[in-house]
Design brief:
This protein is an alpha/beta fold. Helix content is 54%, strand content 14%. The strands form six sheets. The chain has an eight-stranded mixed barrel with strand order 10-11-12-13-14-15-16-17, surrounded by four helices. Strands 22-21-20-25-24-23 form a six-stranded antiparallel β-sheet, with helices on both faces. Strands 4-5-3-8-9 form a five-stranded mixed β-sheet, with helices on both faces. Helix 6 packs parallel to helix 9. The protein is extended and about 115 Å long.
Length: 932
């Protein structure tokens, strides 16, 4: 609002001066002396006022101040020149041109140009070489056009006047240079910034016109101060001042592409420059316009050369990208197939052998699940480097997907290819991720021994690879037609169609999902089994084959219908159906689901959720409207992690079995499950642990607040709604008493356990015994309880231990942090190495052999009666949860000690040192005694 008001005031003041000057020129101001004074001082006043306005704007800016300081400083010199000329003219003859006044006038242009360039740099990012070339083209062409069309008469009038005329011509030249910069910036500016550059354009254009008129009239001997020619100067400088006040102090820097946004503007301006240069070749054009047009053309040539060079580099880079795997920088799937086709043709023509090695990392999913995809990616890059080092000159090493690599070996026979494969496996075996050794399997196929025409060489090597995996992994197999049966795409599709056409090909088994709090079966997960068709293989392989053939929606719809047709599901249980996100978007799966989904859970696989896109969201909303709940399977194993969970907002989150396995002996896995439980408590999501195989694992799931569990330890998948092991269910469920489930008491110590200890304190020995549970709960190496002695302005240790004996006293005046905790009833911590920590407290902390201290006030009936001090040997801060627990225990300790120990520890509200304002206790000590 202030900027807008100031801008309007400046515009109004400028308009008023112009009106006065016009009135002065036409009618006069009523007195000859006033007329002379007005004519003499009009320009100095206009210049000085505009300079002051710009400098004031610069003073008020927190950032972007320098450009306006330079422009305001330049106008200040302009004003000083006007004042000098006017004073000198009034005291005697006018200074002879060129004079000191002209030096001051011309000093404006370097400062203004520096200010404009600085302003442009502050307003734009990405000002690369191409952008500066565009600026040179646009600015030079605009200045050349102005010099040719507008200033030709000026040039004619001054060029014959000798050195003085040429010096006068420096004024419009400076204006044109500044105008060229401003026009270029205006063309690049975003919409919100164009007002600033537009006003600067108008200002410098008006200044160029005024200087041109001045030079023309001075060259003809007709210029005098105070005439109508002064008006454009006042308008020009007012516009510059308005531009400063229109500019925002805080602004979003406009991004200018370092490679330029397009060629249209520089080409158009280049054509203007070419026209002027062509005219100069056949007719007279003043030297300034000619030179500027040639500069613009030179910049255009450099611009085009830069653009063509960049396009050539980009084309080359795109070709490399198209043929390269971005993670490993090896040849990608497309490049491998193209190179293999070329080598096959060459091998046929030259009758030389050709071999292919297909290599796949063993159990790599476990690496990703355990150590994360960042470590997995690093492992793939390390494997790529090792494989590239094992190949011969001329061999091709590529990554064709996931953890599968390919080596194309021109000229290599079967024996040599197997040797190279073994070298590759040995090199991979030397690598490890966090101590976990990598391993791989390999398959080899050779032309012409294994494939007479080489057309299926990679397919044969891939078949040999999976033969190696079926044989136990960690080995190399060469293609054997008796062991490797390959199916074409048509044959794979035919197998899936056979499954779809058979009434008995898909059997459904169910695995119970147990509610841990009650031990009841809350639901069943429907699992597919394929019988009587094709080769014997797992359901995941069948569904993967269906996806490759484009028949996954039909096969999943078939499995869904088969699960829904089975009757007899126990009452109050849900049915969980596995559906891939892509298939869920298909009409086949949507049609297979019933209208009422109130007892149905749609279970999605997390890694496929990542690739399903936001079209999945609307489909899930539709299913939820029909009553369905959504579950995400294999949570913690997919790439997207919590980001996808936040987007999907599942009602049930199923933890991947890799995180559940061994959780009873792995603190890291337990901590991760606890984080999922906290996520669930915040979002209202139920958590289910999958793949539970031992009673110990299930007990941990109960302790970390899992909602459900399923696994072989409870029940194996079976037909017709199997039951669960009663013994295992009892392990997880809470005891029933008077028609309710009692809160679990076994497991690690909790806040409730410690609170129960505190309310039973009846002696000093009981107090000492309560400190150990507090330390265990809050991960403290030492716990001290002190009481406040107000008459001594001290605190006294009342708990007894070997390291912190009872009876030690500390004066509050020596420990201001402790006094602050007592007086203000705040809780805080001190960490060794923290520069903000109190030096006295840190010294005491160091003497005790600890490096972290948490101080919590013990409050009873609104008064601070003591302190709880928690110590750690490591400089590790307490978490917010631990601090909140410490606050609760400290407050409870006040009531426990005051009510339980009686006279043994006479803590009363009278011991408060300084009542806290937030406790609501008056300052009067008598009132404090009454409360006691």
């Amino acid at each position: 609002m202030r900027r807008l008001l100031t801008t309007r005031l400046l515009a109004g003041a400028g308009a008023l001066l112009v009106v006065l000057h016009v009135w002065h020129d036409v009618f006069g101001l009523g007195d000859a002396a006033i007329n002379r004074a007005f004519g003499a001082w009009f320009m100095p006043v206009a210049f000085l006022g505009s300079a002051v306005a710009i400098l004031e704007r610069a003073r008020g800016l927190r950032r972007g101040r320098l450009p306006w300081l330079l422009l305001g400083g330049g106008l200040s010199l302009y004003a000083a020149a006007g004042i000098y000329y006017t004073v000198a003219d009034s005291l005697g003859p006018a200074p002879v041109f060129p004079s000191f006044a002209d030096a001051l006038y011309l000093s404006f242009y370097p400062l203004a140009l520096a200010g404009l360039v600085t302003l442009a740099r502050s307003r734009f990012t990405g000002l690369g070489v191409v952008v500066w070339l565009d600026g040179a083209i646009v600015g030079s062409a605009a200045a050349a056009a102005a010099a040719a069309l507008v200033f030709q008469p000026v040039f004619d009038a001054t060029i014959g006047s000798g050195a003085a005329g040429i010096a006068r011509f420096a004024y419009p030249v400076g204006d044109l240079i500044c105008l060229g910069v401003v026009v270029t910036a205006w063309a690049l500016a975003a919409k919100g910034e164009r007002r600033v550059w537009g006003l600067l354009c108008l200002g410098f254009a008006m200044l160029a016109a005024a200087d041109g008129l001045y030079v023309l009239r001075a060259g003809l001997g007709g210029w005098e101060q105070g005439g109508p020619g002064d008006i454009p100067y006042g308008v020009a400088t007012t516009l510059l001042a308005c531009a400063a006040w229109v500019a925002r102090g805080r602004f979003a820097r406009g991004r200018v592409g370092a490679e330029g946004d397009g060629l249209l503007l520089p080409v158009v301006c280049g054509l203007v420059a070419l026209t002027l240069a062509g005219y100069a070749a056949f007719a007279y054009l003043n030297p300034l316009a000619t030179v500027l047009s040639l500069i613009a053309l030179l910049a255009l040539v450099l611009r085009l050369a830069t653009t063509f060079s960049r396009l050539n580099r980009r084309s080359t880079a795109l070709a490399v990208i198209a043929a390269t795997d971005p993670l490993t920088q090896l040849a990608n799937h497309r490049s491998v197939h193209e190179r293999l086709a070329q080598e096959t043709e060459r091998a046929r023509a030259l009758r030389t052998p050709l071999s292919v090695i297909a290599l796949d990392l063993d159990h790599f999913k476990a690496v990703n699940d355990t150590y994360g995809h960042t470590e997995g990616d690093a492992a793939l890059q390390a494997v790529a480097r090792e494989l590239a080092g094992q190949g011969r000159t001329g061999d091709l090493v590529g990554r064709i997907g996931g953890e599968e690599f390919v080596l194309v070996l021109p000229g290599a026979g079967p024996d040599e290819a197997v040797q190279i494969a073994e070298r590759c496996r040995a090199a991979v075996g030397d690598l490890a991720v966090e101590g976990h050794a990598l391993a791989c399997s390999a398959g080899v196929a050779c032309y012409p021994v294994d494939d007479e025409n080489g057309a299926r060489l990679l397919e044969l090597a891939d078949g040999a690879l999976y033969w190696a995996k079926r044989s136990g992994r960690g080995q190399t197999r060469r293609y054997d037609p008796g062991e490797v049966v390959l199916l074409s795409g048509a044959e794979q599709s035919a197998q899936i169609h056979e499954v779809l056409a058979s009434d008995d090909a898909v059997e459904i088994v169910f695995q119970p999902i147990v509610e841990l709090a009650t031990g009841r079966v809350a639901g069943y997960e429907a699992l597919s089994r394929f019988v009587g068709v094709g080769p014997e293989r797992g359901p995941s392989e069948w569904f993967a084959q269906a996806r490759r053939c484009g028949l996954a929606p039909q096969l999943e719809a078939r499995a869904i219908r088969a699960a829904l047709e089975i009757e007899g599901r126990p009452r109050d249980t849900f049915l969980s159906l596995n559906v891939s996100p892509r298939s869920l978007l298909s009409p086949d799966v949507l049609a297979a689901l019933p209208d009422d989904l109130g007892d149905v859970v749609i279970e999605l696989t997390e890694d496929e959720v990542c690739a399903a896109g936001h079209a999945l969201d609307s489909r899930l909303d539709l299913l939820r409207a029909r009553g369905a709940r959504i579950a995400v399977d294999d949570a913690g194993a997919g790439y997207a992690g919590l980001q996808q969970l936040i987007r999907i907002k599942p009602e049930i989150l199923k933890i991947d079995r890799s995180l559940v396995h061994g959780v009873d002996s792995d603190p890291s896995k337990r901590a991760l499950l606890e984080s999922f439980a906290r996520f669930a408590s915040t979002t209202g999501t139920a958590i289910c642990g999958e793949g539970v195989e031992t009673a110990a694992e299930m007990r941990i799931l109960t302790k970390v607040d899992m909602t459900y569990a399923q696994g072989f330890v409870l029940a194996q998948p079976a037909a017709r709604w199997p039951g669960i092991s009663a013994t295992m269910a009892e392990e997880a469920t809470a005891e029933v008493s008077a028609g309710m489930r009692l809160a679990p008491t076994r497991g690690e110590i909790g806040l409730g356990d410690v609170s129960e200890t505190l309310v039973r304190i009846r002696s000093r020995a009981g107090l000492d015994a309560a400190l150990a549970p507090i330390g265990r709960l809050l991960n403290a190496d030492g716990v001290v309880v002190s009481r406040v002695l107000p008459e001594l302005r001290a605190v006294e240790t009342v708990s007894g231990s070997e390291q912190f004996p009872a009876g030690e006293r500390f004066r509050l005046e020596d420990y201001p942090t402790t006094e602050h905790v007592v007086a203000e009833q705040v809780i805080g911590q001190l960490i060794a190495g923290d520069p903000a920590a109190d030096a006295a407290e840190l010294g005491l902390l160091s003497d005790s052999g600890h490096r972290a201290l948490l101080l919590a006030p013990v409050v009873f009936r609104g008064a601070t009666v003591g302190l709880v001090e928690l110590y750690r040997k490591a400089p590790q801060p307490w978490t917010r949860a631990e601090i909140d627990q410490a606050r609760v225990l400290a407050h409870q300790l006040g009531a426990a000690i005051h009510g339980g120990l009686g006279d043994e520890l006479p803590w009363t509200p009278e011991t408060v040192v300084s009542p806290s304002p937030k406790a609501g206790i008056p300052e009067s000590s008598n009132e404090g005694k009454e409360r006691g």
